[in-house]
Amino acid sequence: MRTRIKICCIASIDEAQLAIAAGADALGLVAAMPSGPGPIPDARIAQIAAWTPPPVATFLLTSETTAPAIAEHVRATQPSTVQIVGHIDPGEVAELARLLPHVRRVQVIHVEGPEALALIPAYAPHVHAFLLDSGRPGAAVPELGGTGRTHDWSISARFVRASPRPVFLAGGLDATNVMEALRQVRPYGIDLCSRVRTDGQLDVMKLALLMAAVRDADAVLYAEG
Hints:
The structure is a single chain. The chain is built from eight helices and ten strands. The chain has 225 residues and is α/β, with parallel strands linked by helices. Strand 3, helix 3 and strand 4 form a beta-alpha-beta unit. The chain starts with a strand and ends with a helix.
């Protein structure tokens, strides 16, 4: 058992190199958002996606809400995976699967309460994975990620047990709490942004501590069964 690690809010090829050298399995590339850290121009997203060597995945974080607009965004940036950050109409995700069948689709679910569980059957037939985050899509200024806040991991654990798709866990994770998060939730992977940064820059020490904490947690949880 090995927890996959996605480092989000990658801002440059230099940051991509640091994340990959530390052991990242995937890079998150944030496009225009209504709020939150890390957005970069689409041209830079395309540059980083083109540079990134396999098998590292590149996730385009898009706030587009319709299948044609998301497909156009993907074609402009050429990631391996598209991460849909809002709770869009599941029919749009189904149409996206028809338009771009070769691109992997990850649906973000913002865990504001147990109602998050009801979204599993709506999206699961059309996506390859879920990502649980701590945003507030219904806020006056929607929060769609990068909050640095944890959410109720007991709900996330129920989501993981109920989901037929792999689940990433995001929201306020760092080296101090990742052991408990993995023990409670048992996700397929985790997603990091603000807690591995200092003054907005990817922090090599925080990243190294996080990676070591995840590997230690994996070893302990494997031994515990």
